[in-house]
Design brief:
Its main location: membrane. InterPro entries: ABC-2_transporter, ABC2_TM, ABC2_TM_bact-type, ABC_2_transport. The protein is mainly alpha-helical. It has one domain (2-242). It is built from ten helices and no strands. It is globular, with a radius of gyration of 18 Å. The two termini are 24 Å apart. The model has no long low-confidence stretch (mean pLDDT 90).
Amino acid sequence: MSASTAVLKAESRLFSREPYTLFWLVGFPTLLLVILGLIPSFREHSADLGGRRVIDLYVPIVVLLALIVAGIQALPPVLAGYRENGILRRMSTTPVRPGSLLGAQILLHLAGGLASAILAIAVGRLVFGVALPEHVPGYLVALALAATSAIATGAAIAAVSPNTKVTTVVGSVVFFPSLFTAGVWVPVQVLPDLLRRIVEFTPSGAASQALDMASRGDWPDWTHLGVTALWAVLLIAAAIRWFRWE
């Protein structure tokens, strides 16, 4: 336990010395929300959205974006880099097992994603008057599943990629479609019916719908929660199956 704690502390110090990563992980999602909120039409109530504003739709989306950045964009290159540079192999000969290092990185990126999500919710409320999630238990369940799915995706990407360069490419290939299915480009709620149904069977699309329903005061649809959970289980299994220490 003490060795794992020491690894976590050391990795935390290294993590805090990466301003570029911290900006994209913590600052970028909220910055995007602020930019969108400055568009006058996004702050106007719309009958087509059930009396809500576009900015109201985007807070859950930006929360999900924070988790996607943490899990898919930031985490895989770190895991792949440690393996490619032989750090995990060398650690296997010491009392500190490689799993402690991987666990620390997963925990740090998960914490960064959740901190970014909380910041986005706070800015949405204080700056643009977006209501806080009305169904808190449902929101927390959806958030936990979304975070697990995003981190599992990143771990699976690192597992199947032989080196850091490939990890970056594969991560980008997964990242941008995930932004679309999460609703960053166009909110899922306004997509054509057929396309929306397809998107809702992706991890980001299902999580986006679950977070939106909880934000409006409803318990998330069990289909959306189930799809997100199923993707998380499958991706965790893939990461465990194919990850190599060296």
